[in-house]
Structure formats: C-alpha cells, structure tokens
Design brief:
CATH class of the largest domain: Alpha Beta
Distance between the termini: 51 Å
CATH superfamily of the largest domain: Dihydropteroate synthase-like
Number of strands: 15
Strand order of the largest sheet: 8-7-6-5-4-3-10-9
Number of helices: 12
CATH topology of the largest domain: TIM Barrel
Number of domains: 2
Radius of gyration: 20 Å
CATH architecture of the largest domain: Alpha-Beta Barrel
Order of helices and strands: EEEHEHEHEHEHHEHEHEHEHEHEEEH
Shape: globular
Strand content: 15-25%
C-alpha cells in the first residue's frame, strides 16, 4: 500500500534547532535520556544512541543548578537537537537556554516556587531566556500537575483544567510576542489525551502539538495505549511531534523511537490496529518512563515485577500506578486505585490519595498483593 499524505492541521512552523515542526513539516519523533544529567559521559552516550536509533529531538531533565551546569559539557559532546525539561524550577532557564534548542516548562509547576509572584512574570522569565538563546518553548501540560485554581474550578473534570491551562499559557506567550512554541497535553488515559488535544486543536489550530501518553508503562501495553491516542489524533491531522513513553532500561530506549516510527508509518499507510472493546475496563498498570529523575534504578525492575505479580487480576477494572520519583509520584498516583512511588531506598504505597506506608523494595510487592486482594474482594462483594 502506498503511503498517502496525512491530513495536517494548519499549524505555524516552529524551528527547534535544525528541526522544524508544524506547517506540514515531517512529524518529529522525540525521546528522553534516563541517565543522571550530571553524569556527562553517560548522558552524551545515551543521547547519541537515541539519535542513532532515529530520534529527531532528545529531552534532558534538569532538576538542580548542578544539572544545569552539566549541560554545557553535554552540549559540547553532541550535536543532537536537545530539549530541556525545567521541572519545578523555572529560574534555571537562563542557565540552560544557551546549551539547548528547546525549553519545556510545566504550567502547573510554576505554582510551586515564589507563590506570591505572578505566573505571567515567571513565564516572561522563561521567554526572555529562550529569546536570548534562540530557543523554542514547549508548554507541557500534565494531568498530574495543573493550576490549583483550575482544578478547583472543574472538580469533576480532569480534561478541562488541562485545556484551559494550555490555552491560557498560549495566550500569555502571544501577549509576550513569542510565537516559537508548541504545546502538549498529556494524561495516562489515551481517551483523555485524545479529547484534550482535540479540544485544544479546535480552539488553537495554529499551535503545533507534541503528542504523548504520559506514564504509558511497559511494552507492549504502553505501545498499545499510545497507539490508540496517536491513531485517533494523527488521522484527524492533529500532532506535529510525538513521543512514546515506555518503562524500559536504557539499553532498550530505542524501542520508544521504533514504536513511534512504526505508528507514523502505519497511520500513513492506513493500517489501524483494532482495540479490544473492554480495554479500559481491565487491569491498567501505569508506569512512568525511566528518566534522569529516577532515584533508584530498581524502579524499572519493580514496574516489571508489579506487572507479573498482578497478572492474575487482569480481568478486574483496577488501575495501579508505579512512579519513579518524587516529581511524578505524589500527585500522579492519586487517581489510581493503588499507587507506588519510589524514593531512593523505599517505596511509598498508596490507596488512592491515602498513604498506606513506606516499604523496602523487597517488601513492597507482598504488601501490594495484600491490598490488591482486598480491593478485588470488596468489588466482588459490592
């Protein structure tokens, strides 16, 4: 079958280093490093490995001034197109901007520091740093960290706060006269990813969109979840860059890029995979992609072991979230029936928003089994 040109929304073009997205340019495939950013040699090696595997853009997490300072050496060791994730500290923007091609900030995280300072002023600081260093910007909206005021305004709706946050921040950048930006709206539920991006694209068809299902989890399930969202969005002309986020060790990070390329090729050739009707009513294991924020490399093994342990419950409508760090962990396990978020030497186990306790990596699995058994028994009786 001959590939047909995919329909594309009439977005403007945004240059990210030597890569241009939007306005009909090829859809870029992105991945992310999982090494410690301050380990320059390992990070550069992984960047080059990802580029060789076909990544157009590679994202690096920066969580401290030391991470930011390491970027100069990383930049000197590779000519890859680099994006940086500022996480919770927008004030690092001036330190990182000279060494990368794109800065990603999360609107929800801007509320964590300098709480009395207007959000617009914080965004203006990021824009100023990006402008001085010829950087693009990604407004990265995530289901687990939205503006508290928007979450309060829409208490029973997780999609509206994401969309309104994305629109509001796009308008701030418009007002600041900065149009080199893209937007992402991510959730671990592919249906919510589809709806949030569809609604935003209707309101702002000019803004290029980066697509992703956050915490998609382990393959093959993580690829299936991502494929569901991407097929529905790309076939509507929505999406200018993509990332498949999988929980895999570093030597398998190429699988993210291969999966992304395969999905793009399938959509272009009209090859769509069938989706089981009850997919959203079975066991759903959410796990974040391994990245430099992971504080114990045992996280990946834990996620794999959780999947094996819970296989007996695959016919039950239960969501279990496994998060690798303190950034994603506390908030993004709240909506799961059972959640695990990993600290350096222990794992926090939660039931919804309630903390059950902190357990060693060796002891948390039996406790998870107990909690899962109780949950299943309660649902059988209801």
């Amino acid at each position: 079958m001959v590939a047909k040109p995919m329909p594309r929304n009439p977005t403007r073009s945004v240059s990210i280093g030597r890569v241009t997205v939007g306005d009909g340019h090829p859809i870029a495939v992105q991945s992310m490093t999982a090494t410690k950013t301050q380990d320059v040699a390992a990070t550069v090696a992984l960047i080059d490995y990802l580029v060789e595997a076909g990544a157009d853009i590679v994202r690096i997490a920066v969580d401290s001034k030391s991470d930011a300072e390491a970027l100069a050496a990383i930049r000197g060791g590779t000519d890859a197109v680099l994006s940086v994730d500022l996480q919770e500290n927008y004030r690092l923007a001036p330190l990182v901007a000279p060494h990368v091609d794109k800065i990603r900030y999360n609107p929800g995280h801007l509320h964590h520091l300098e709480k009395s300072k207007p959000i617009r002023d914080k965004v203006a600081a990021v824009v100023d740093a990006a402008s001085r260093s010829d950087c693009a910007i990604r407004i990265g909206v995530n289901c687990g960290s939205v503006d508290p005021a928007l979450a309060e305004k829409y208490p029973n709706d997780s999609i509206a706060p994401m969309v309104r946050s994305a629109v509001e921040h796009a308008e701030i950048l418009d007002e600041l006269g900065y149009d080199r930006f893209v937007v992402s709206l991510k959730d671990s539920d592919p249906a919510k990813v589809i709806e949030a991006n569809r609604l935003f694209a209707e309101e702002r068809p000019d803004v290029p969109l980066h697509l992703g299902v956050t915490e998609a989890g382990l393959p093959p399930d993580g690829v299936i979840k991502t494929r569901i969202a991407f097929e529905q969005l790309l076939s509507r002309g929505i999406g200018d860059t993509i990332r498949v986020s999988l929980t895999v060790p570093n030597d398998r990070k190429h699988e993210e890029i291969e999966a992304g390329r395969q999905i793009l090729d399938d959509v272009a050739h009209g090859r769509f995979r069938s989706v089981p009707a009850n997919l959203s009513h079975r066991l759903n294991i959410i796990s974040c992609p391994s990245c430099s924020r992971v504080e114990n490399e045992a996280f990946v093994d834990l996620a794999q072991n959780v999947k094996k342990l819970c296989k007996y419950a695959e016919e039950f409508d239960v969501t279990i979230a496994v998060m690798g760090c303190r950034v994603n962990g506390p908030g993004e396990t709240d909506d799961a029936d059972l959640g695990l978020w990993c600290a350096p030497t222990f794992v926090n186990l939660k039931r919804g928003e309630e903390l059950i306790g902190a357990y060693s990596y060796a002891d948390v699995l039996p406790k998870l089994r107990e909690e899962l058994d109780e949950l299943i028994a309660a649902r059988k009786d209801s």
